[in-house]
Amino acid sequence: MSNGSPPSNADRSTIILGRYALGPLLGSGAFGSVHRGRSLVGDKPVAIKLQHLDGSAHLPRFEREAQSLARIIHPHVVRVLDFGHLDDGSAVLVMEFVEGRSLDLLVEKLGGVMPWREAVRLMIGVFDGLDAAHEASVIHRDVKPQNILVTASTPAVAKIIDFGIARATDGNSRPITMKGQVLGSLGYMAPEQLLGVEVDARSDVYAAGSVLYELLSGRPAFAGSGMKLVAAKLQNEGPSDVPRSSPAHDWPDALSAIVAKTLRRKPEERHSTAYDVSMELQSVLRPMRTTTR
To answer: What region, left, alpha or beta, does residue 260 occupy, with left being phi > 0 and alpha being psi -120 to 50 degrees?
Structure first.
């Protein structure tokens, strides 16, 4: 096939951008599909995200994702390696290939609840990655378990993916979201995001806090769906505690307080930065010092 020809899922020999061999489909979302691929230079595995053939309206989001990822160099954020267009004008985003699985699938394998120390350790990485994004003037706006990859390495490492609806906050990028438009995943969106008002780093803090709550408790921070879920988030100040499911999952009270603070309804009552959350979570993991006389 010629370079740049629109690939089909069945044809795994397609050469993309003249530099990458397209491999099997890994997953598909609203804006595009992600395939495993291989770099023809160095024979290294890559992940190739292809814009849907009928998704010309999504081209700006592909370009925004490439721009956002290019700003962020951090071990807990997936790296962008290349970006280009096929002959039909659709976009291609090439990223580092992460051997592992998404956080939601990992938790499902564990039975719905993750040991609290491992949950905290992984989420420290997520908050650190978000802090790097925020320092690069990028708000993710769609932090959820499906957008967190966990490597198969030991120890496992969390990596944030899918900056397709991210927003740049430096004023140098043209907005592609209409004022008042609500984008994101309902179960993890902060109240201000649900209202369609301007979001900042504290909205990502809320979303990541929701993920941590779910890892610890095995259930969402707020029950319900649709408008019931929206109403619960807008009316409540936030969960006051994280339930302890069993003695085996009995974590420190300080951890419950940290998670509860990330989920406060008013942004000014949450942690100001993802870095602040990371530091507090690290303090929970440190063993308590004992003194002898």
So the answer is: alpha
Average pLDDT over the chain reads 86
- List the CATH code of the domain at 100-285: 1.10.510.10
Question: Which class does domain 15-96 fall in?
Answer: alpha beta
Look at the alpha carbons of 105, 110, 112, 118 in this order and tell me if their dihedral is positive or negative.
negative
In the chain, where does the domain assigned CATH 1.10.510.10 lie?
100-285
**CATH code 3.30.200.20 region(s) in the chain:** 15-96
Task: Judge whether residue 292 has pLDDT over 50.
Answer: no
* Each residue's pLDDT tens digit, 93-147: 999 999 999 999 999 999 999 999 999 999 999 999 999 999 999 999 999 999 9
Indicate if 162 belongs to the active site.
Answer: no
Q: What is the Cα–Cα distance from 82 to 128, expressed in whole angstroms? A: 24
Nearest to 76 by CA among 31, 25, 121: 121
Task: Report yes or no: 263 and 209 within 8 Å, Cβ to Cβ.
Answer: yes
Average pLDDT of 70-84? 94
Residue 77 DSSP symbol: B
* Partners of 82 in beta bridges: 94
Among 128, 131, 142, 276, the active-site one is: 142
**Residue 201 and residue 277: Cα distance in Å, rounded?**
12
- Find the range with the poorest average confidence among 60-69, 97-106, 176-185, 261-270: 176-185
Which residue matches tokens 């564990």?
110
